[in-house]
Request: fold
Amino acid sequence: MRAKAESAKRRRLSRGALLGLGIVVIAVAWLVYAFLGELAPPPATQQVDDLEIALYSTLTGRPRVGDNQFEIKLSDRQGQPVLQAEVGVAYSMGGMGHRGGMAARSEGYGIFSTLLKFSMAGTWTVEVVVRRPGRPEVKVLFSVSVR
Reply:
């Protein structure tokens, strides 16, 4: 009789543990699904002569209306960071009259950061201008989808 009671008690604990595990699995799956779309897209990269320029959003995830933190990474052909450069960023939404621009701040190791403030959803053009000592100025255009 006592063995039956212990067996039943174990089954109740097992069912409770399974129920708890099921709830945790569902919660984790929901969180992954809910926030997966919020992750930042991969960097957009362009090669111009000996310079590779990558543009990507950082702390804010996918670009959205309002303030967005972006980084620009400069590398040479060998993949080494370009340390001596000035970077400017201008952005606009074609035909809408929405514009902005500013200098990017050097964070070291070829990484420059800037804050872009998008006033509305849609496709924006971001122009990155790189000035290096003794080299011609480089301009590249990136298309950024803002929601």
Notes: The longest strand covers residues 66-76. Residues 2-36 form the longest helix (35 residues). The radius of gyration is 25 Å. The mean pLDDT is 83.
